Structures are given as structure tokens and as C-alpha cells.
């Protein structure tokens, strides 16, 4: 008989309603039938599941069914399955889960391609179950002992994975028997520590992991007794020590056990435990902390875990209960800032009677600063940027705020902000700010400058991007000296930017109107770019389309409307032809066309611009370029008359 490629082992206890679906997902695999061996071990089911397995075995010759008395957990039936398995690989499937159709083919191919001993196929939670956060990308080959690997801390210790059987036998791996939970801790961890290599298959849904009411496998009950649990965790951490030298790798691997099995279980379960279980739990946690809670672990632990750890190690049970109740209440602890340090104010912070060290409360996380931009406009010769900042979870002190302009090459300019006294807020301490980017911006080197807010409070400095809300209008460009400063529309979530030395465009002149001024001049009126400080001269030019001759008039403030500038252009001596209108700004680049709003258009005129020499003018207005057309009526009449006086009336005889 040909050796199967993979043996699928399924422990079954009280799973009559689901085991059929689990088995069907195996029978439907894309691998050839002869390459898949299925071993179902009935662990004393009383719901008819064992009889169903026998019935299915009669229909599927690949299914081997074993019956045994109830052992109290999934460990014994899995071990029995390992004794019978003959495949190159083994895969453990729970009786109320199922496999994706190509799961075994893809995982075995990945193991053979890379020579790895374990393939962790993508697990997908169903019914509200959360899958481990380790499937962001596929990894062809890695190892938990590799420097910097975070696989051990992110994966689940559930043995619902593909293992090379030679690894299992070589390392003598077996499941802990008689436990309703955590029976796979030592098996899975031992496999990863002894493996020659590990693969992560993240681009295919291999395993559909069902949620259970009690949060455990259907082959398990409500959980392992605390004494058994902490004995297993102690063995698991010593197993890590057996495979590592003292130092970063050992600390990194054992951190998962402290974080999840000590601090995490205390956080989640201790308050609801019986007095007897609390006593056993405290003893088990204290023993683990005394052996493995090194200074390096303390340094990297969350402040909540440090406080919990101190309470456990120093028999502060009442204080531990109060800290855990505070945590369960859902409130975030406030921050105390002092001399550049931050402390989370969990219960008993600087309580002289309890004397928990400040180091337990110290937070390495940076301040969370939440800026909100509410004002952005050119006013009083400056770009005014205003809003508010909240320093989250802080209820004391008053922040100082600066606006920072940063280019892509490390250049930085700071603009001091006017800050209104801070006020307490639900989220933290709040202050409003206003920054004015004025004429000094003329010295900014050309390029894009992003805007950030720098907040200083009690020795802490935090810089965050200043993002423009969608409903806040973006101002147009302004002139600083002879250079154009243009606010730039950023992508969602990106900081607002200011482009220095931007090119002039027609859109920089708004509300454009063309009409007749006094003395039959052409009047151009526009809302010109704002000017910071002493601005350059601006003008309107008429440019002859044929010979490049230019007629110019300054753009000056209108006495009756200081918000707009206007220019009056005389065409009394203009030569006939088309004259295109342009705006010009001294020193700010090339002139740009005078364009009218979308609702503009039509023809203005004609009028007599001059009698001697006779000139008639009309203006064509459209969205491309306002164009002045100049004609000489007497000249045209003379030319027509001359042609009539020529022989043949000025026309060539027809051939």
C-alpha cells in the first residue's frame, strides 16, 4: 500500500452535529484520494457520534475510526491518532471545524518546496471567532529562533497546523493527556523549537475555525484547572530555556507566556474566579514571575502588567483586585507628566501607604496629540492657521504650540503660535492655537513644505501632521515678495502642504470681469492673489497675436472696492488685430491668460476707441482667454474702395 502524503487526525467528543461536515471537508480535498489518510478517534461520545463515525467509515475506505473511553480532553485521542498515522505529514483538525478544499495540497506543497517541518496555514474565524494576527503575508521559510522573529508571540499554540511526522517522532512530541484545555501547549511549542524551518501560508483560507460558547474546542470543556494550567506554562517556559541561551531570544519567546498566560489571564479571569481558584492562581503566577520576570521583561511590559506583577509578587491581593476592577471598568488611566517622564495613573500611583514604585507606572508610549484645524485663510497679510489640540489623557498643565514647516530635505522653519489657556476636556487637556505665516515666508526655499504641529508639555515634545478637514476650504495662492506661496491639496490623512515658488496660474485671479472704463478704455477687474507685506507690481497686458506688441496698465486698488484690483487699458493708438489679455506679476514668472468664470462669455462692444486714427474695439470673452479685437473702419473702407476702382472691380477675370 502506498504511503499517504498526509494523515488527518480528528479527536471526536460529543460532536455528532458537526463531525460530518469536518470529514466532508477532508474528503473533498484537491489532493488525490490515496494521498490522504483520515483517523477519527471517538473519545467516549454519548451523543451518537461514535455510531455516525462507523457509518461514515463504511462509505469511505480512507477513514479509520477508533473508539476509546473518555479521557477528559483532546490530548489522548490525538496521541492515539499519532500512533496510527503513516503519512509524511500529520494535520490536526477539530471535529467542529473544516478545511478549505485546497488546504492540504497547498500546505504540503509549501513544506516540500521549502523543506520546512511546519506549515501554519491561514486560519479564518467563523461565528465571531478571532483568528491569530499572523497572516498578514506568506513566509516561505522562517524560524521562531531567528533574530527579530515575532512569529512565536503572534501565533496561537493550537495544534491546528501541518507538521512533518518525522519532526514529531524525532522530538518525541506528544499531547498532554487528561486536560480539557492547553493540552497542545507543549506539543506546539516543542514542534516550533525543534523544527528545521517553518512556513506561513497566508494567501489561502486553509482552516475555518468555529467559535464555541465556552471559547474552547468542542472536544474540550470549560478550561484547565489553574494548578494544571500553570504547571504546563512553567514547563513551556523551561522548554524555551532549554533551546535558548540567556538573552534577547529567550526573553522574546517567554514574553508571550507572561503576557498571555500570566498577566492576560489575571486581567480576564481573576475577578470571576472562586476564592480557591484565586489562591491557586496567585501561587502559580507568583512562581512563574519569580523565575522568569527578569528586569528585561519588566522594562518591556505594559505599565498595567508591571502594576499587576508588583501586586502578585508582594502579596497585595486587595490592591490587585482594585487594579483589575479599574481595568474592567473601561476607563483609561490619566497621565501624570513630570520632567519628561510619563506615568499612567492606575490605582495606588504614589500612594504612600502601598508604595508601588513609580517605575511600575512609567509609560514609554509617546503622548497622543489630537490636532483639529478649524481655520485656514489669508487674512491681514498672513496665512492664518488656527484650531485646537488635545493632549489625550492629561488633565494638568498647559501645552505650548508651534507650527512647523518641513521640507523633504530636513529643512525646518518654526512659527510661534498664539495659544489660549488650556482647559480640561473629557479626552484630556485642550488648548486652542493660531499661527500666522506672514511676509517672512518669502525666504522659504522653493519646494513643498508640509505643516506640522509641535506640542510641548512638561518636558515632552510631540510633533504631529496638521491635516485639513474635507469641509475646510483650501485658500488660493498668495504673494510673498515676488514669490508665490500655494496651499496644496493633500491626500486623505496626509499633512497640509505649502508650495513655495509656485508657478502663477490663471486660477490665482478670481472673480474676473471685463468691461468698459472711462475714456473708452478696456477695464479688467479681478480679485488678485493676497499679498504678504510689500508685494510686487501687478498689471494687465494686451499682447498682439501677430507681432508681439504689448499694451500694459497697472492693476491697482479700486477706491469703491478695495477687495479687487482693476486696470484700464487705452487702445486709442492700437494697431488692428487680436490682442490677448494677460495678467502679469513682476518677478513671479510668465504672464498668464485672463480667463473669465464659467458663466462669462459673449462679445463686449464694439465701441469707438479713437477717432484719429479711427479705431473700433470689441472684446470676445470666453473661458480660454479674453481677447480684444481692434479694427480700423476708415482703412477698411479705403481698401474696399480701391479694389472697386481697379480694372475688373478688383477681381481677377475668370479663366
Task: Describe the protein's topology.
Blueprint: E1 6-12, H1 16-27, E2 36-43, H2 49-59, E3 63-68, H3 75-84, E4 89-92, E5 98-99, H4 103-114, E6 118-126, E7 139-142, H5 151-154, E8 162-164, H6 165-170, H7 185-194, E9 198-210, H8 226-243, H9 248-269, H10 275-292, H11 295-300, H12 303-313, H13 317-328, E10 335-338, E11 341-344, H14 358-361, E12 369-379, E13 382-392, E14 400-406, E15 412-419, E16 423-424, E17 428-437, E18 447-457, E19 460-465, E20 478-480, E21 483-488, E22 497-500, E23 510-517, E24 521-527, E25 531-532, E26 538-544, E27 550-554, E28 556-558, E29 561-569, E30 577-585, E31 592-593, E32 602-610, E33 615-621, E34 627-631, H15 633-645
Parallel strand pairs: 1-2, 1-4, 2-3, 6-9, 20-25
Antiparallel strand pairs: 4-8, 5-9, 6-8, 7-9, 10-11, 12-13, 13-17, 14-15, 14-18, 15-17, 16-17, 18-19, 18-22, 20-21, 21-22, 23-24, 24-29, 26-27, 26-30, 28-29, 30-31, 30-34, 32-33, 33-34
Helix pairs in contact: 1-2, 7-8, 8-9, 8-10, 9-10, 12-13
Task: Please give a structural write-up.
With 655 residues, this protein is an alpha+beta fold. The protein folds into four domains: 1-224, Spore Coat Polysaccharide Biosynthesis Protein SpsA, Chain A, CATH 3.90.550.10; 225-365, no CATH class; 369-500, Immunoglobulin-like, CATH 2.60.40; 506-637, Immunoglobulin-like, CATH 2.60.40. Helix 1 (16-27) runs parallel beside helix 2 and helix 12 runs antiparallel to helix 13. The protein is elongated. The termini are far apart.
Amino acid at each position: 500500500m502506498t504511503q499517504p502524503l498526509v494523515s488527518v487526525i480528528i479527536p471526536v467528543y460529543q460532536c455528532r452535529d458537526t463531525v460530518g461536515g469536518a470529514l466532508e471537508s477532508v474528503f473533498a480535498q484537491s489532493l488525490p484520494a490515496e494521498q490522504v489518510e483520515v483517523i477519527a478517534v471517538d473519545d467516549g461520545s454519548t451523543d451518537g457520534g461514535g455510531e455516525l463515525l462507523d457509518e461514515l467509515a463504511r462509505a469511505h475506505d480512507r477513514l479509520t475510526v477508533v473508539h476509546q473511553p473518555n479521557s477528559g480532553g483532546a490530548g489522548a485521542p490525538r496521541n492515539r491518532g499519532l500512533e496510527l498515522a503513516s503519512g509524511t505529514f500529520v494535520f490536526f483538525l477539530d471535529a467542529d471545524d473544516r478545511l478549505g478544499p485546497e488546504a492540504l495540497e497547498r500546505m504540503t506543497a509549501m513544506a516540500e518546496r521549502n523543506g520546512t517541518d511546519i506549515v501554519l496555514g491561514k486560519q479564518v474565524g467563523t461565528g465571531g471567532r478571532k483568528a491569530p494576527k499572523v497572516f498578514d503575508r506568506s513566509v516561505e521559510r522562517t524560524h521562531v529562533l531567528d533574530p527579530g522573529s515575532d512569529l512565536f508571540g503572534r501565533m496561537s499554540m493550537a495544534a491546528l497546523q501541518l507538521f512533518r511526522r518525522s519532526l514529531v517522532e524525532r522530538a518525541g512530541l506528544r499531547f498532554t493527556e487528561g486536560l480539557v484545555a492547553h493540552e497542545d501547549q507543549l506539543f506546539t511549542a516543542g514542534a516550533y523549537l525543534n523544527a528545521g524551518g517553518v512556513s506561513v501560508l497566508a494567501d489561502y483560507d486553509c482552516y475555518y475555525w468555529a467559535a464555541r460558547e465556552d471559547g474552547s474546542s468542542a472536544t474540550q470543556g470549560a478550561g484547565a484547572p489553574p494548578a494544571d494550567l500553570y504547571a504546563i506554562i512553567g514547563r513551556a517556559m523551561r522548554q524555551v530555556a532549554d533551546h535558548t541561551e540567556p538573552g534577547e531570544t529567550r526573553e522574546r519567546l517567554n514574553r508571550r507566556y507572561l503576557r498571555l498566560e500570566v498577566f492576560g489571564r489575571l486581567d480576564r479571569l481573576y475577578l470571576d474566579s472562586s476564592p480557591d481558584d484565586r489562591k491557586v492562581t496567585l501561587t502559580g503566577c507568583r512562581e512563574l514571575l519569580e523565575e522568569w520576570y527578569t528586569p528585561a521583561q519588566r522594562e518591556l511590559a505594559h505599565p498595567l502588567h508591571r502594576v499587576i506583577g508588583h501586586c502578585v509578587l508582594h502579596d497585595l491581593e486587595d490592591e490587585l483586585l482594585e487594579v483589575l476592577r479599574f481595568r474592567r471598568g473601561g476607563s483609561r488611566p490619566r497621565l501624570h507628566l513630570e520632567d519628561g517622564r510619563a506615568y499612567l495613573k492606575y490605582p495606588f500611583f504614589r500612594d504612600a501607604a502601598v508604595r508601588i514604585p513609580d517605575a511600575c507606572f512609567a509609560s514609554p508610549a509617546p503622548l497622543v496629540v489630537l490636532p483639529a484645524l478649524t481655520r485656514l485663510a489669508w487674512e491681514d497679510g498672513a496665512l492664518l492657521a488656527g484650531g485646537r489640540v488635545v493632549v489625550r489623557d492629561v488633565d494638568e498643565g498647559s501645552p505650548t504650540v508651534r507650527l512647523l514647516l518641513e521640507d523633504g530635505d530636513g529643512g525646518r522653519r518654526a512659527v510661534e503660535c498664539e495659544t489660549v489657556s488650556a482647559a480640561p476636556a473629557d479626552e484630556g487637556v485642550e488648548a486652542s492655537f493660531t499661527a500666522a505665516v506672514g511676509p517672512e515666508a518669502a525666504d522659504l526655499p522653493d519646494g513643498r513644505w508640509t505643516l506640522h504641529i509641535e506640542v510641548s508639555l512638561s518636558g515632552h515634545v510631540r510633533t504631529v501632521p496638521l491635516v485639513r478637514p474635507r469641509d475646510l476650504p483650501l485658500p488660493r495662492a498668495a504673494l510673498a515678495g515676488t514669490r508665490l506661496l500655494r496651499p496644496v491639496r493633500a491626500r486623505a490623512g496626509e499633512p497640509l502642504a505649502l508650495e513655495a515658488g509656485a508657478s502663477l496660474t490663471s486660477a490665482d485671479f478670481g472673480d474676473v470681469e471685463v468691461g468698459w472704463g472711462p475714456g473708452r478704455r478696456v477695464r479688467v477687474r479681478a480679485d488678485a492673489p493676497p499679498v504678504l507685506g510689500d508685494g510686487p507690481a501687478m498689471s494687465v497686458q494686451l499682447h498682439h497675436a501677430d507681432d508681439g506688441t504689448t499694451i500694459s496698465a497697472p492693476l491697482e486698488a479700486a477706491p469703491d472696492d478695495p477687495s479687487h484690483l482693476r486696470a484700464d487699458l487705452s487702445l486709442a493708438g492700437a494697431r488692428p488685430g487680436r490682442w490677448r489679455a494677460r495678467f502679469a506679476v513682476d518677478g513671479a514668472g510668465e504672464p498668464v491668460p485672463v480667463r473669465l468664470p464659467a458663466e462669462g462669455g459673449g462679445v463686449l462692444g464694439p465701441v469707438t476707441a479713437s477717432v484719429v486714427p479711427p479705431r473700433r474695439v470689441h472684446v470676445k470673452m470666453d473661458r480660454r482667454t479674453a481677447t480684444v479685437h481692434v479694427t480700423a473702419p476708415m482703412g477698411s473702407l479705403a481698401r474696399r474702395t480701391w479694389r472697386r476702382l481697379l480694372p475688373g472691380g478688383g477681381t481677377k477675370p475668370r479663366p
